[in-house]
Amino acid sequence: MFCDGKLYFAKTGSDLSEKIYLYPKMANRHGFICGATGTGKTVTLKVLAESFSQMGVPVFLADVKGDLSGMIKAGEDSENMQERIRRFGLAEDGFSYQAFPTAFFDIFAKGGIPLRTTISEMGPQLMSAVLDLNDTQTDVLSVVYKIADDEGLILSDTKDLKAILQYASEKADEYELEYGRIAKASVTAIVRAIVALESEGGDQFFGEPAINVADFFTTDTSGKGQINVLDSSSLINNPRLYSAFMLYLLSELFEVMPEIGDPEKPRIVFFFDEAHLLFKTASAALLEKIEQMIKLIRSKGVGVYFVTQSPGDIPDGVIAQLGNKIEHALHAYTPAERKALKAAAESFRENPEFDTIELLSALGTGEAIVSMLDEKGIPQAAQHAYILPPMSHMGTISDAEREQAIKVSNLYLKYNTPVDPDSAYEFLERRHQQLTEELQKQKEEAAAEKQAEKERQAAEKEAERERIRAEKAAEKEKERAEREAEKEKERAQKEAEKAMQKEKKAIERSIKSVASTAMGSVGRELGHSVGKKMGGSFGKTLGGNIGASLGRNILGTLFKR
């Protein structure tokens, strides 16, 4: 709770008379809340978040188990709570059950307002972490991001990323001299990882409208800071996406917030639950970036608190930047656990009143070893602390209560409906369509030219065939005319011959007739003369007939010859 201008969250001492504070000015020096499952980490987180809200500082936290949603409701009085209030003497400190302004978010848009970002804003390093790419594939993805940036292509969602990957792969030969080799096998592996992410629902996280981190910096009318709760009950099943998203938010805060030095209180506090997921699979380059960001982001008024089971889950370079430490009980049943227990104890400034290692293994639920930075930024000695109870509702809220809280938020109207902008996918689709149409046009023109050429050749062939047919027809006609002329000639010759024969015969007949008459007359005269000499009139007649007949026979014989 916020008390005396400080964050009062625990008490210490045998009679619980000494208050333990987190100084607002030191809250952006970061910290951790560690402890085994069931030791009270969630309650501690809740008490700190409520205190920051009371101080007017917005909070962003991940709700992995769903039991942080109760902060939207005031706590309920009970016998157990009355006993704790008396034990801590909270009535004198103004403790009261309170509700806190709470906004619910969910990447999968089930348990909260949809949270989205774009592929471009995520950046190649974080995107590689989400996709679990190796170093070579990460380099290829970085090159593809650079190509998209150089060509002014907006990468909004996963289909944009797949489109630019395919585009870069198709033009790999053209890009090689400027950007280096873009191996098709790496592109294929990246696309396969994107498809796997989409099948897990991760594609819902990428798109528009993208979250504006400024919307987390909200206070209600009473001045309480808004508690922004990310429903991570489903998201935690995809640890790469969960850790990459949380790191994206930190990165975005780091990018957009101005330097303000050491403020009197943080501008926002960020709780990273299940923090081991962030560091478990992070590459060396990503770890280096995280360390740098944690180191520098405090001067922008951002406090970061990692929540995990053991301080050993956090890299040394990061834990060195965490000034405020809250360690709940740690179990030490194995050599590895005993080693982690010892390392956790050594991270605290020694307190001669107790053995830190022994106490860490013996802490009860709600107890912790605490070391806060004092007003001068010096780590205080370890203290055996008892965490205060929260002022808000313990446990979850009903689905109806959650839905009502989501829909009455102004952010619901802003982010609920997804928007598909004119980005790389649409641009490349239009380019592909244009190229397809141009190619189709070229094909049609080529086909038309081919058809025209075919028709021209067919016309030439037909003309040639027609010429040949005409020549053959003319030749045939000529031959026919020649044959006809020959026949006509032959007919004329035959007719002439017939006419000559006929004329010859006519002449012969005429000659024969004349000759016959003449020979007959001569024969008759001769016969008459002979007959007359032979015997008078009868002899004359007989001699004439015989003479005429003989004359004709002689003439006939002559003509036959």
Characterise the protein shown here.
There is one protein chain. With 561 residues, this protein is α/β, with parallel strands linked by helices. It contains 16 helices and 13 strands. It has helices spanning 41-54, 79-88, 119-131, 135-150, 158-170, 172-179, 184-199, 239-256, 276-280, 284-297, 316-319, 335-346, 356-362, 399-407, 410-415, 424-560, and strands at 2-3, 6-12, 18-22, 31-34, 59-63, 102-106, 113-114, 227-231, 268-273, 302-308, 324-327, 367-371, 383-387. Strands 1, 2, 3, 4, 5, 6, 7, 8, 9, 10, 11, 12 and 13 form a 13-stranded mixed β-sheet that branches. The mean pLDDT is 87.
The rough form would be described as: rod-shaped
The biggest sheet, with number of strands, parallel, antiparallel or mixed sense and barrel status, is: 13 strands, mixed
Order of helices and strands: EEEEHEHEEHHHHHEHEHHEHEHHEEHHH
Oligomer: single chain
The tally of beta strands, per DSSP, is 13
